[in-house]
Amino acid sequence: MRHLYRCPMRWADLDLLGHVNNVVYADYLQEARADLLRTMMPGRDHLAEAIVVVRNEVTYLAPLLLRTEPVAIECWVTHVRAASFTVAYEIYDEVGDDLDPSAPAQRRVYVRASTVLAPVDLAVGRPRRVSDAEREVLARFTDEPADDPAPRIPRVDRTRAHRFPLPVRFSDVDLYRHVNNVVYFDYLQESRIRMLDEVVAEVGVERPHIVTAQTDVDYVRPIVLRAEPYDVWTQVTRVGSRSMTVVSEIADHEGDGVAARARVALVFFDVDAGRAIEPPAALRDRLLAQLPVQA
C-alpha cells in the first residue's frame, strides 16, 4: 500500500530558474515521510522522532513550477531489514489531455527518491533493531522494491579538491540537536557553487546555468551546532560532454572525521533552449584538471 501526501509549496522554494530548488525536494520528502510515519503509528510520535536518516538518493526528472495547489507525493516501504528500512517516493502530478478530456490522466513525475532509515534507542543514543510490532506495521505499507542502491561514494582526494569552511546556523539543528538531514543538501549546494565560482573566475568565463540530475548522500555521523566551522571538500570526478559529477565530504575542521559523503550529477543547461549544452572549452579543461589521478 502506498501513502499519499499533498505537499504545500512556497515562493521561497524556487531557484534562479523559477523551478523548485534541488535542495527543497529533500524537504518535501521529509514532510511526506513524517506524514507516513504519523499515519503508520498514530499516537506514537516518540517513535517517529527516534528514527534517523542513513542515506538519501534523489533523482530529478523534470522541473516543478510554483502554483497554489499542493504537489502529490506517494511514499511506501520497499525493504525492511534487521535494523533499518527503506522508504521510496514519487513526487508527481496527474496531467489530463486538453484535447481529449475523456482520456485517462498521465502521471508526470518530477522526482523519484529513496531513504534508508534506522530506528534509534534514545536512552542510549544508538541504533536498535526493528521490533516485530514495527515490522508488522511496515509490512502494511510495503509495495514494489526500490532500485538497487547507487554505487559506493568514493573518498575525496583533498589535494585536488576545493575546501569550503562551513559555519552551522542555529536554525539548521533538529529535535536531536543535530543538523537536519535536509540541510546537508544545502551545505553541498553552497560548496559546489563556491567551487564553480572560483573556477569560472580563474578561467575568465561566465558561470553557466547548471541543473542537478542526481544527489546521493551517506550520513556517517552527526553534525552539531558549534562556533568552529566544518569543512566541505568538493572534487570533480567525471566530466562528460554536457554534464559532470562531483563528490563531496563534510568533515571536522580539526581532523579527518567524515560526517557525510555525497555524489551529485550536474548538467550544463541552456535556459532559453531548455536543453543540455556543452560548457565553455576553457571551463571544461579546468574541470578535467580536478579529476582523480588514475593509479
* Known CATH architecture of the largest domain: Roll
Give me the oligomer status. single chain
Q: What would you give as the CATH superfamily of the largest domain?
A: Hotdog Thioesterase
Mean pLDDT: 91
Shape: globular
Low-confidence stretches: none
Please state roughly what percent of the residues sit in beta strands, choosing from under 5%, 5-15%, 15-25%, 25-35%, 35-45% or over 45%.
35-45%
Number of strands: 12
The main β sheet shows up as: 12 strands, antiparallel
Q: What's the level 1 CATH class of the largest domain?
A: Alpha Beta
Percent helix, as a range, is: 10-25%
Number of helices: 5
Task: Tell me the series of helices and strands, N- to C-terminal.
Answer: EHHEEEEEHEHEEEEEH
Taking all Cα atoms into account, the compactness measure Rg is 20 Å
Distance between the termini: 48 Å
What count of structural domains? 2
Structural class: alpha+beta
CATH topology group of the largest domain: Thiol Ester Dehydrase, Chain A
Question: Your description of this structure?
Answer:
The protein has 295 residues and is α+β, with helices and mostly antiparallel strands. The protein folds into 2 domains: 1-149, Hotdog Thioesterase (Thiol Ester Dehydrase, Chain A), CATH 3.10.129; 150-295, Roll (Thiol Ester Dehydrase, Chain A). 22% of the residues lie in helices and 35% in strands. The protein contains 5 helices and 12 strands. It has helices at 22-40, 45-49, 132-140, 181-203, 281-288, and strands spanning 3-7, 51-60, 71-80, 85-95, 106-121, 126-127, 162-166, 209-219, 230-239, 243-251, 258-270, 275-276. Strands 1, 2, 3, 4, 5, 6, 7, 8, 9, 10, 11 and 12 form a 12-stranded antiparallel β-sheet that branches. Strand 5 (106-121) and strand 6 (126-127) form a beta hairpin. Helix 1 runs antiparallel to helix 4. 30% of the residues are buried.
